[in-house]
Amino acid sequence: MTKSKEIFDYCLKKYNDIFNATRDKLTEEALKSSKKKILNNSKTEEIEKAAQKEAIKQSIIDGRLVFPNDISVLWSFIYKAHLYRKSGITDPIVVHNAISAEQSWRSSSGHAFEEMIKELGTTALHGTNIQFILQKDLNILIKANELANEPRDIAWLEKKIKSDTFDLYVINIKDGKTYCVGCCQCKTSIRDRVTRDREPSIEAMRCFFWSIAFVLDGTMLNVPKYIDMVNGNPNSDYAKNGWHGLYDLSSSKNNDRIYALDINFDILRNHTIKAVEYWHTQRQWFNQDWRAD
User: 281, 273 in Cβ contact below 8 A?
Assistant: First the structure.
């Protein structure tokens, strides 16, 4: 038996043993507490979530004592064990293909969304000398010494490119010179890295760049926490706004700095033109408080 097979068999057994034991224990306790013979669906789901969380946690805790030099392998096999139980699929090849498909979708769909915003945003700005460009396009401009920003700007932008902080950038050609005036983040879901992405956005605003975000599915923007992360709220953990504006393709109404992105991107066109004009004429005031409306 190969070591990989040994670790996988260990994880599969360990995860299922812990899950089943925890689920049975919690179910028994819940039945005694409720004095019922059958639990409702909500309680059953609650127990399942608790049991699978315990199985994941304890499997990695126990497994690292048995295979101390294979933590990442343990984690990946515990993930597979979870998929086996949750999906009911036991064929390793089918599970592997499902994982690969999911990872491929995450990567490809994210890049496709960026490309879509670039294309539609630039089309909406036709005739303005303003464009949305990909990170790689900005890098080409910098390497070719074709960006007219101040050296301080360029040094900051180079750092952001190296760390893949922003997905798109806004450039403007003025008097024959090309300037980068804005930074954009694209999220298929508002949950995607939103806490981590907020800090770089605030940094961009402090460096006097226009900082915005786009979201394909803004369902979570109905939750106060996420609203506060975008708009700011002195009575929350997010006292100030995290972006100059967030454009939601799935909404039909605005909420402060959260804007419903119409089919023709008209609101984006108007805001972008205002931002670029302000950047060129009053950049020293282009801080976190600035807004396009």
Answer: no
